[in-house]
Specification:
Length: 268
């Protein structure tokens, strides 16, 4: 253990979420976040996990010896020595959502390459889920591809002033064909704000297919990097005709937070 302000600090607990695009680490003490870090995922998951963990520990002047238990979720977790146990992304996400919103029973997690809709019971345990198979349409990578086609930054899609009132209709369910549609609209002289709005609406529509396939048990919320896009959330709420409950925390961290919460239960 390490000391702070003259007293011995209790053991801390860690959650490590290695996503396809970004790696997240959260450290908690008494169910409160005391450190966190998000970095781009490297080619080797082990390298990403170690970098993120070391950066998070440096925030509190701690070391791996201070961690009572660490749970990991995501990919490439097998050879990471400080991870004590691996639990599914779905359950870590559910535990993270339940920690903040006790009444939520359904959520959708839209990450770098995967979209999954999850139902959970009143205690935050997964009941059922659906997710995309191979196509990255509607995910963070899809948004990056659209940004490249328009020569703008992905974060610009979130700006209301850059979203037009007459969104173009993007019909393709395939990322590659959708990109071709966008390029066609550009070449035909469509207004860029209407193309941006059309892309956001298309992403929301694709997310809604997973939500509808699973079915919504209210309350409902969204997590993952794409969920930070307020315009996508606005369109999604209109399509599914259900209020999307906000989370007062970085929603990209929710699975890592859930992993840390589960770790605290295992380690205590």
């Amino acid at each position: 253990m390490f000391k702070t302000e003259g007293s011995v600090r209790k053991l801390i607990y860690a959650g490590c979420d290695i996503g396809t695009l970004q790696t997240k680490v959260v450290l908690i003490e008494e169910d409160k976040i005391i450190a966190r870090d998000i970095i781009p995922t490297e080619a080797r998951a082990k390298t990403s996990a170690e970098l993120a963990m070391n950066k998070a520990l440096s925030e509190i002047d701690g070391s791996l010896d201070d961690i009572g238990y660490c749970i990991g979720c995501g990919w490439g977790l097998e050879n990471i020595p400080f991870i004590n146990e691996v639990i599914s992304d779905k359950q870590c996400g559910a535990s993270g959502v339940h920690h903040y919103l006790k009444n939520v029973r359904t959520f959708v997690d839209v990450g770098g390459l995967f979209t999954r809709a999850v139902q959970m019971d009143p205690d935050g345990f997964v009941l059922d889920y659906v997710m995309n198979d191979k196509c990255a349409s509607g995910t963070g990578r899809f948004l990056e591809m659209m940004a490249e086609a328009l020569e703008i930054e992905p974060k610009d899609f979130d700006r209301p002033e850059l979203n037009g009132d007459d969104p173009v209709n993007i019909t393709s369910q395939c990322s590659v064909f959708a990109e071709s549609e966008v390029i066609t609209y550009v070449n035909e002289g469509a207004k860029i704000p209407n193309i941006i709005s059309g892309i956001n609406k298309s992403i929301a529509s694709k997310i809604s297919t997973f939500v509808r396939r699973l079915g919504i048990i209210e309350d409902f919320t969204i997590i993952g990097g794409v969920g930070k896009n307020k315009m996508v959330v606005k369109h999604l709420q209109e399509i599914i005709k259900t209020e999307i409950r906000p989370l007062e925390v970085d929603i990209q961290l929710i699975p890592a937070i859930g992993a840390a919460i589960l770790a605290s239960r295992k380690g205590s």
